[in-house]
From TrEMBL:
Recorded catalytic activity of this chain's protein: (7R,8S)-7,8-diammoniononanoate + CO2 + ATP = (4R,5S)-dethiobiotin + ADP + phosphate + 3 H(+)
Cofactor: Mg(2+)
GO-annotated molecular function: dethiobiotin synthase activity
Active-site residues per Swiss-Prot or TrEMBL entry: K51
Role, per record: Catalyzes a mechanistically unusual reaction, the ATP-dependent insertion of CO2 between the N7 and N8 nitrogen atoms of 7,8-diaminopelargonic acid (DAPA, also called 7,8-diammoniononanoate) to form a ureido ring.
Binding site for substrate: T55
Family designation: Belongs to the dethiobiotin synthetase family.
Name of the protein this chain belongs to: ATP-dependent dethiobiotin synthetase BioD
Binding site for Mg(2+): T29, D67, E130
Amino acid sequence: MTTNPLGDLVASLGHAVVVTGTDTDVGKTYATAALTVSGWNVGRRRIAVYKPQQTGMRGGEPGDVDDVARLARAAGVPSEALTTAEGQRLTEPMAPPPAAAIDGVELLPLSEHVMKIVELQESHDLVIVEGSGGVLVELDGDRRTIADLAVALQEACGEPGGAAQTGRAAAETSGQLSSPETSEPVNAVERDGGTVSTVLVARPDLGTLNHTLLSLEALLHRGVEVAGVVLGSWPADPDRLATSNREYLADLPPVAGRRVPLLGAVPRGWGGAA
Ligand SMILES: Nc1ncnc2c1ncn2[C@@H]1O[C@H](COP(=O)(O)OP(=O)(O)O)[C@@H](O)[C@H]1O
Ligand SMILES: [Mg+2]
């Protein structure tokens, strides 16, 4: 069993990587762990994993970031190299808005997540952000999604060729901060080309082609810089369907004028899971 399923992939990604998926349970957490291992293997020594909304968890229960830490440690990433953080934890295993309503709490605004991630970027050389569910799941009380968070981060961290801005200033530019007391720029990000990449995690089985193309359309039409697709759980003994799907995903038709590559696959059972 390989302990670094995505090889040196992180070397070609930005310093912040947003991990989203075609659905829930597609292997985003496993892919996040594999990206962490890839990051360590290409020399990133301070890695942070951030989960904006952790739903379906009570108080001290281990969440996705704890699973990432366990898998990464098992693959040789030292505990000291990894910081894990959650934006908000909600009890019910539902989309954040109804889960927050049941818990009787307000959802954090998207700008808070942007600022937390920018802060993590200042002290780490790789920040991986795992979304909840699929691409268009709402993350805040304003119907913003992980696609909106990715775009806000791209603006906050300076898109390729663009001038780096402060996280807060970028959040203001994108209309996420409105109260007067938040208008003062803080957290200056002095990064040159501190870019943000988004990875879409997909299933290998029936239905994945449609879900993958739909998700890519949604991401690309919203201006998300999609680096490519990762298969979250690739079987040891793939059948004809899985093999054919993988071939198709490796040669996708252009979406929004872009050809999106298949970046790799996490073997099913990696990290000791069934
Ligand atoms: N590479 C993998 N190896 C083994 N099991 C996996 C793998 N990827 C996903 N799974 C299984 O699928 C479940 C969902 O994966 P997870 O990464 O938690 O999905 P997501 O984060 O997209 O909800 C896991 O609990 C595990 O049982
Ligand atoms: Mg997960």
